[in-house]
Design a protein that fits this description.
This protein is α/β, with parallel strands linked by helices. 19% of the residues lie in helices and 28% in strands. The strands form two sheets. Strands 6-5-4-3-2-1-14 form a seven-stranded mixed β-sheet. Strands 7-8-9-10-11-12-13 form a seven-stranded mixed β-sheet. The relative contact order is 0.16.
């Protein structure tokens, strides 16, 4: 049984849509979605955006075989673009399991989608060049998964073009929710989502837009930080983490968002690369 005193989340990529490195994004980071959750000694990774490259460099230290489960919300490019550059996947003896909950109903599998990405002319080497032992799991969003003893991962279908999956990691009596690439109905909080995240300690939430911007982007599949606040208030979530920042929102704009968030809901934070939270 994993040590239940060790439950943490670290952010390796916090942007949505496209990576945006540059002088104006140095403090919050420009890499796309990748979040590492450690439960005891076990590692769960959520999404394989460009932040996955830095995560791989950090953990590929030669101290024995690596094992992790990688959960994809969906397979748009900003959530899979780091996979070809994930060094540990090329090391024989490492072991990774990939999970996707948005493709099974369409008759397409996660392995098939990633094989399409990792082949010429898009990429010079195929998926089977990954020398680590890799297993693929397609499931229907709504199922409960058990990647490790003592760790439960609940899933929920999200409103996003092509589908997406939300995740709730339950470890002992604590839980963390990862809810990104979801579009809400204007004026509604969403009872299914509220119940899914109820009483969790942390909710990482798609905060691409503001309420003022949202009407101009209906149908794009994203939400607002104010909607995250409303969900947390109704669901009794302890801390909101704003995530999946618009690539056009520079450090100054995110500082302003952080100030407004702190006034609106003290204790909540804006995600930045390298930030670690302990539950």
């Amino acid at each position: 049984m994993p040590d239940q005193t060790n439950f943490s989340v670290r952010f390796w990529g916090v942007r949505g849509t496209v990576a945006c490195p540059g002088l104006s994004t140095t403090r919050y980071g420009g890499n796309t979605s990748c979040v590492e959750v450690v439960c005891g000694g076990e590692r769960l990774i959520f999404d394989a955006g460009t932040g996955l490259r830095e995560l791989g460099r950090d953990i590929c230290n030669g101290n024995g075989p690596l094992k992790a489960h990688i959960f994809f919300t969906h397979t748009h490019l900003d959530h899979i673009g780091g996979l070809p550059f994930f060094r540990p996947a090329y090391v024989k003896g490492n072991y990774f399991e990939f999970w996707g909950g948005h493709l099974k109903a369409s008759g397409t599998g996660l392995k098939q989608v990633l094989e399409t990405l990792l082949q010429p002319p898009l990429f010079p080497v195929p998926l089977n060049i990954l020398h680590a032992c890799v297993a693929f799991h397609d499931f229907d969003a709504g199922e409960t998964l058990s990647p490790f003893a003592g760790v439960e991962v609940r899933t929920l279908s999200l409103n996003h073009p092509g589908g997406a999956t939300g995740y709730r990691v339950q470890f002992g009596d604590r839980s963390l929710c990862y809810i990104t690439d979801v579009e809400h109905e204007e004026g509604e909080v969403g009872s299914d989502l509220v119940e899914f995240v109820r009483d969790s300690e942390v909710m990482i939430y798609d905060s691409t837009y503001t309420d003022q911007e949202f009407p101009s982007f209906k149908g794009w599949g994203h939400s607002t930080w104010q909607q995250g606040v409303r969900i947390c208030e109704q669901a009794g979530v302890n801390r909101l983490v704003c995530f999946h920042h618009d690539p056009g929102r520079d450090d100054t704009a995110l500082d302003q968002l952080a100030e407004e968030l702190a006034r609106t809901r003290p204790g909540s934070v804006v995600a930045r690369e390298g930030m670690t939270l302990f539950l």
